[in-house]
Design goal:
CATH superfamily of the largest domain: Winged helix-like DNA-binding domain superfamily/Winged helix DNA-binding domain
Structural class: alpha+beta
Radius of gyration: 16 Å
Number of domains: 2
Strand content: 15-25%
Bound molecules: zinc ion
Helix content: 40-55%
CATH architecture of the largest domain: Orthogonal Bundle
Length: 154
């Protein structure tokens, strides 16, 4: 997935392009692309707030009134398994989700729980300790920085 993302805002999002990339990736990986899956992916791709499954479900039922929360959970789980969606690592009990896009890390406000994307190139290119390589295959590295955002400090 190629989405240009900066500070939690998708700056340039060509929805058609993202969806055709997604559809192609589904074909390559053998995941059946149902209208429901497409809609769930599309609404998540538009989100800039790393929503929970519940929040995503609330947005989806406006267009799909019969969609159950359970289906949203299961679909997100499938997307995570296929690598289309990331489950954002947070200390909160409710998982937060985002469409996989360019390598980035997260800032999390412990008061308002807002999650902001940021780039950290020196971390991305840092050489990992030898023991990490001997542990196994590295798939991605994601740093989470916790604190209190400016809005909450005021
Ligand atoms: Zn905050
Ligand atoms: Zn993110």
């Amino acid at each position: 997935m190629i989405l240009i993302n900066r500070r939690g805002m998708i700056m340039e999002m060509d929805t058609k392009n993202i969806l055709s990339t997604f559809a192609q990736a589904c074909r390559e990986k053998g995941l059946r692309l149902t209208p429901q899956r497409l809609e769930i992916f599309q609404v998540l791709a538009r989100a800039t707030d790393h929503p929970t499954a519940e929040i995503l479900h609330q947005r989806l039922i406006q267009g799909m009134p019969t969609l159950s929360l359970d289906t949203v959970y299961r679909t997100l789980g499938t997307f995570v398994d296929y690598g289309f969606v990331n489950r954002v690592e947070t200390s909160a009990s409710q998982a937060r989700f985002e469409v996989s896009h360019v390598q980035h890390h997260h800032l999390i406000c412990r008061k308002c729980h807002e999650i902001i994307d940021f780039k950290w190139q020196s971390i991305d290119s840092a050489v990992l300790p030898e023991e990490v390589h001997s542990w196994g295959k590295i798939e991605r590295r994601n740093i989470v920085v916790y604190g209190i955002c400016h809005k909450c400090l005021q």
